[in-house]
């Protein structure tokens, strides 16, 4: 059981996969028993949020520093451009409701819209750290609920199809 909690914790920290991939793993019989919902969500949320302060305060500096380096420059430029593009799009559409837009951006479980990208966008837009974290946590919780419901439906249907 500890191993599965460790797996969902670590998967929650992986960019692009994040909580969106960890919740279905925890709710599936893959790698052992299905995890209880509340401890699973807490584990996934903590894992997903752990990198947020580091991303907010240091990612921009590291990406700017590495953008002109020989071997890592293309990837760093890609990350900077993706974050800036996402941030600008968010800012244009949101106007004064920027933190609500950040919440929705992080909360809708689509590829590239998680806590990592949302935090990078907030950092690149020089948004307030505390307000950004609140919006991102709320978005991560929303994404977890959506993924939990989707996983329960998918795995419940599969269980009925393959049940003896």
What does this structure look like?
The two termini are 25 Å apart. α2 packs parallel to α8 (129-162) and α6 runs parallel beside α8. The protein has helices spanning 2-13, 18-27, 37-49, 52-66, 73-94, 98-107, 115-124, 129-162. It has eight helices and no strands. It has one domain. It has 164 residues and is mainly alpha-helical.
Notable characteristics:
mainly alpha; 77% helix
Layout: helices, strands, pairs:
Blueprint: H1 2-13, H2 18-27, H3 37-49, H4 52-66, H5 73-94, H6 98-107, H7 115-124, H8 129-162
Helix pairs in contact: 1-2, 1-3, 2-3, 2-8, 3-8, 4-5, 4-7, 5-6, 5-7, 6-7, 6-8, 7-8
Give a concise summary.
The protein has 164 residues and is an all-alpha fold.
Q: Biggest β-sheet, characterized?
A: none
Q: Provide mean pLDDT, rounded.
A: 86
Structural class: mainly alpha
Helix/strand order: HHHHHHHH
Report helical residue fraction.
over 70%
How much is the radius of gyration in Å?
A: 17 Å
**How many domains, in number, for the residues?**
1
């Amino acid at each position: 059981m500890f191993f599965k909690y460790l797996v969902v914790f670590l998967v929650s920290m992986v960019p692009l996969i994040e909580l969106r991939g960890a919740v279905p793993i925890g709710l599936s019989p893959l790698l052992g028993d299905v995890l209880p919902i509340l401890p699973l969500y807490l584990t996934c949320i903590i894992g997903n949020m752990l990198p947020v302060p580091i991303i907010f305060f240091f990612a921009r500096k590291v990406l700017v520093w590495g953008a002109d380096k020989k071997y890592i420059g293309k990837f760093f430029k890609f990350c900077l451009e993706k974050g800036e593009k996402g941030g600008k799009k968010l800012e244009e559409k949101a106007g004064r409701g920027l933190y609500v837009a950040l919440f929705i951006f992080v909360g809708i479980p689509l590829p590239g819209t998680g806590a990592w990208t949302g935090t990078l966008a907030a950092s690149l837009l020089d948004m307030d750290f505390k307000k950004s974290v609140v919006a991102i946590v709320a978005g991560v919780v929303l994404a977890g609920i959506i993924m939990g419901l989707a996983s329960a439906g998918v795995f419940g249907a599969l269980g009925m199809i393959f049940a003896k």
